[in-house]
Amino acid sequence: MKKFNMFITFLVLPIYWIRSQVIRRFGSETKKDKELRMYPDHYLGFRRISVKIIGKQPNSQTPCIYIANHQSMNDIFITIAAVNKPFRFIAKKELFTNPISGTFMKMSQSYPLDREDPKQSLMILKQALKDVEKGYSILAFPEGTRSHTKEMLPFKDGMFAVLRKANVPIVPMYIQESFNENQKEFNVHFCQAIEKDTYQTMKTIELSQLVRTLMEEKMKSIYA
């Protein structure tokens, strides 16, 4: 079944690639969001996989910064399905140069971080923050890469130095078992949002540790 799914995926991939090229260049914001929201339905739905939301997130009109763990490539589709508003990813630049994922990441107007160039990463994060102030939402994976396990890798604390200057809720979320190929339902657990009045008084490391603690507590409650 896995080989069949992969075969179908690569068979139809050129169609999606062409669609995304056209929409990226000529589509409206609404059209881009509609296209992106279609991918989880197709990619996960074809595999008869559903996404279940557990917990509350701010209403769909409130710009937010979402922070998620990262277990597999499924997480891109899972987060699009779970988050109740359009958002842009903060992701490693390799996803933007990859011939398969690059067009999709560019269409979402996401932010490519160069882990080898701290100055470039800082500029990108500052741009993301400016866009948040304009009303956009963003989502970051602070581990920086996939863990392939329920446990989280160490966070890249640097991004929190910029994110702590935002004026919107920070919403930690824990994605459960997305690395498990036998799963037919991916659960996304939303933690309590951290309001600006709380995190703006924190130092970078303190904010990073608070976000991680909330996510670890959620993980422990899941596997208790």
Number of domains: 1
Secondary structure tally, helices: 9
CATH class: Alpha Beta
* Fraction in beta strands: 5-15%
Pick out the low-confidence regions.
none
What is the CATH-assigned architecture? 3-Layer(aba) Sandwich
The CATH superfamily appears as: Glycerol-3-phosphate (1)-acyltransferase
Strand order of the largest sheet: 1-7-6-2-5-3-4
Helix content: 40-55%
Number of strands: 7
Mean pLDDT: 92
CATH level 3 topology: Glycerol-3-phosphate (1)-acyltransferase
Structural class: alpha/beta
- What would the principal axes of the Cα set say about the shape? globular
Rg over C-alpha atoms, rounded to the nearest angstrom: 17 Å
SSE sequence, one letter per element: HHEEHEHHEHEHEEHH
Main sheet attributes: strand count, strand direction, barrel closure: 7 strands, mixed
Describe the structure.
- With 224 residues, the protein is α/β, with parallel strands linked by helices.
- The protein has one domain: Glycerol-3-phosphate (1)-acyltransferase (3-Layer(aba) Sandwich).
- The protein has helices at 2-26, 29-46, 74-82, 94-97, 102-107, 118-133, 158-163, 196-199, 204-222, and strands spanning 50-54, 65-68, 88-92, 111-113, 138-140, 170-176, 185-190.
- Strands 1-7-6-2-5-3-4 form a seven-stranded mixed β-sheet, sandwiched between helices.
- α2 (29-46) packs across α3.
- It is globular, with a radius of gyration of 17 Å.
- The chain starts with a helix and ends with a helix.
- The mean pLDDT is 92.
